[in-house]
Design brief:
With about 350 residues, chain A is α/β, with parallel strands linked by helices. Chain A has helices at about 10-20, 30-40, 65-70, 75-85, 100-110, 145-160, 185-195, 220-245, 250-255, 260-270, 295-310, 315-325, 335, and strands at about 25-30, 50-55, 90-95, 120-125, 130-135, 170-175, 200-205, 215, 275-280, 285-290.
């Protein structure tokens, strides 16, 4: 029920997913009557691999994530989290309220044993290839332990998403040199250096686009600012591009001949092929789509969700946590609190 | 001597500035022999409003700002700061090492009385108009007091730079709602709300481009990530644009007819007209240019420096600090340290 075009695009995306992924069973969670309308529209009535679970409430985008769990006990997000908790489903997908999803899964599904906080892992385009920004906004205030675990979870996710055997991990900072950063990054730097052989050190926010790391680690406040800043600038660039190209009739006509090129440019920033960002570290797979998700994005978020389950993303995360000594209990107290300097 | 094309572009920009601003006297600080070569080249030998102060050393871009002051006692940046401190000059301009400039001015020139930390104020393009990002990277770890003073100094600078009587101040956050943010922004929010009638509240990193604030306040780590992330994405966008437009000979030919339009697009992101970002809060005017400054950027940084002096930027900052009760001594201890939550 979440996102700008729900539940229409969600049911439409589900229809394509049921067709494309014959091993998937899908449970649609939301207002039953509203869902039935679209289920009929997209010819899914009586589909053997489709089930509906009624959830009468919706968390609106303007609502607070901190209270949504209490005030909307039967929202589609909360019901989804309950299904995930009970094991009735292996994963959940939502283009709805990010904060409410983080809150519901944290409280109901809980984190993987030894993981302190879940983190949102957004895939972003570099000049060639892509990189994963983690945490893209689930935790505004972080400890060194959190950043360390974000790095590890991002690394495992990059192995799946980009098919890399040794994804390079970078720490988002204000300079490329080892000593640059804020109190938090300075404290976690030697720890990351010790734990990960594929740690490339501090990475500046501009050089990341040159493709010098596959996983970029930051606290969720900074990661979110970085992600949203790029989204905003991309939209403004399209606005400016239109402005200069439509300035006079001659330019307009010439530019119209390059329509395909501009569509290709626009697609560089599109996350439709990935469909959503996983909330890593939750004891179950949870993919959060963009609020403006199309049916194609929903279909691909379902694909990513199914593939993460098949890949045993969480099992691999747990294994790596143990191997590298990155479980919460492995670290001393000083790394488990925010820097107090 | 700093910047990618120094000292050539600096002397060239000085030549234009001497011509365009007949009230300005300019002191070139750097390696005398090297400067003399360009002074002759640009026909400035014996110019009545030009003087050279010899500084044999240069802080290289890869050097640490924390040690540059000790290891390079006679760098052009340090000598500049000494001239500013002694009152021999009213302002300084450098396209050199930002960290070294911050360190040298902080130690030698000091901050304005009652100002705790200087902040870098970068002007960035919005869809229409521009906004000031403060702090763009001078302080990686901040207290609520710092953010409050950054806001006030940014406001006074916006009055000069954008000719606005009541610049709107926004707090960079992870959501537009009042309660969103990290521990630092949550603590400073009510304070900013109380002190500034023109406070527009929390601003997300994407909506800022829609022009909803004239001054955007953040700690220097996040501000720097935001600024550099945008710079990097802008460069990548140009890369992608070239990629799609040069894909085949037909597109290449058509695109070449739109050369002016693409040049106009590129100029949106250019900071050449402003030339540099002031280091606000220093007891003297200090403008820091981009490392890749052209002679035009140098000329305009000199213009901005002269105009800030004429505008009495620092006098106005001090007055506003007193008026609003934003002097360091006006605030209680809890706002003068970093949030400990």
């Amino acid at each position: 029920m979440g996102g700008d075009y729900a539940p229409g695009v969600v049911v439409e995306g589900t229809a394509t997913a049921l067709c494309d992924f014959p091993d998937c069973e899908i449970v649609l969670v939301g207002h039953e009557a509203k869902l039935r309308f679209y289920i009929e529209k997209y010819g899914l009535t009586g589909h053997p691999r489709l089930r509906v679970v009624h959830a009468p409430e919706v968390v609106e985008m303007r609502e607070l994530s901190s209270t949504s769990l209490r005030t909307k006990k039967h929202s589609s997000i909360t019901e989804c989290a309950r299904l995930l908790k009970s094991g009735e489903v292996d994963g959940m997908v939502t283009p709805g309220h990010t904060g409410a999803t983080v809150a519901a899964t944290k409280v109901l599904v809980r984190t993987l044993p030894g993981v302190d906080r879940p983190a949102l892992a957004a895939s972003m385009p570099a000049e060639r290839g892509r990189f994963i920004m983690v945490d893209a906004g689930a935790n505004t205030d972080c400890s060194p332990l959190h950043l360390l675990q974000f790095a590890l979870m991002g690394e495992v996710y990059a192995r799946y998403l980009y098919r890399l055997s040794e994804p390079r991990i970078g720490l988002l900072s204000v300079g490329g040199e080892d000593v640059k950063g804020n109190a938090l990054t300075k404290q976690v730097f030697p720890l990351m250096n010790e734990k990960f052989s594929n740690f490339v050190g501090n990475v500046e926010a501009d050089t990341i686009f040159e493709g010098i790391a596959d996983v970029l680690v930051a606290d969720g406040y900074t990661g979110n600012v970085f992600l949203k800043g790029c989204e905003g600038l991309a939209r403004s660039t399209i606005y400016w591009l239109k402005e200069v190209l439509l300035k006079n009739p001659w330019r307009k006509t010439t530019a119209s001949m390059l329509g395909n090129a501009f569509r290709e440019l626009k697609s560089k920033g599109s996350a439709e092929d990935i469909g959503g960002a996983p909330l890593l570290g939750i004891n179950g797979i949870c993919i959060i789509g963009h609020g403006s998700s199309t049916s194609r994005a929903v279909r691909n978020a379902i694909r990513v969700c199914a593939e993460c389950i098949e890949f045993d993303l969480n099992g691999r995360i747990l294994q790596r946590l143990k191997e590298t000594g990155c479980l919460a209990s492995d670290l001393t107290e000083e790394f488990r609190k925010r820097p107090q300097k």
